[in-house]
Amino acid sequence: MKQINLTKLITTNIMAKRTVKEAEKLIEQVKDALSPEPNFTKGEWSCITLDLKDYKNMTIISESEEVVICRLHLEYGINETSKANARLICAAPDLCEALEELIQVKDWKDKNGKDEHYLKAQPVVWENARKALAKANNI
């Protein structure tokens, strides 16, 4: 099956009628439409632990939207592994955001080279990635 280069197709079809800036704007709009925002609950997630004699539960909630993300019913009690799993779930939005930032900076570099924007953004996004991993690993 032949692959279509969307950027090339749009640019070729509208260059006769529009400026390069208009073509680039349309390409960005198409890319945005093809890669929509994720639908998961935004904001900080945290864990509430209920460790009673006959009932063990960890509930992950969204702090900003006051919504339950998930509940972990722990038949054999709360241990280090269940705590680590809860931390990883709580860090998921931060990990996703950090990965998106890293990809955006890489795409920028591929398009524009190591310009001033890239040189300023690159250390910031790596630091955000380190913070997200530290949150997941409880460091």
Question: What is the 3D shape?
Answer: elongated
Strand proportion: 15-25%
For the largest sheet, list the strands in their spatial order: 1-2-3
Radius of gyration: 22 Å
- Find the structural class using helix and strand composition: alpha+beta
Largest sheet: 3 strands, antiparallel
Terminal Cα separation, in Å?
48 Å
Relative helix content: 55-70%
* Count of individual beta strands: 3
Question: Could you list the spans in which at least 5 consecutive residues all have pLDDT below 50?
Answer: none
Quick check: average pLDDT?
80
Pattern of helices and strands = HHEEEHH
Number of domains: 2
Number of helices: 4
Description:
This protein is of the alpha+beta class and 139 residues long. It has two domains: 1-36, no CATH class; 45-137, no CATH class. The chain is built from four helices and three strands; from the N terminus they run ααβββαα. It has helices at residues 6-14, 20-34, 80-112, 116-137, and strands spanning 45-51, 56-62, 67-73. The protein has a three-stranded antiparallel β-sheet, with helices on one face. A hairpin with a 4-residue loop joins strand 1 and strand 2 (56-62). Helix 1 runs antiparallel to helix 2 (20-34) and helix 3 (80-112) packs antiparallel against helix 4. The protein is elongated and about 70 Å long. 6% of the residues are buried. The mean pLDDT is 80.
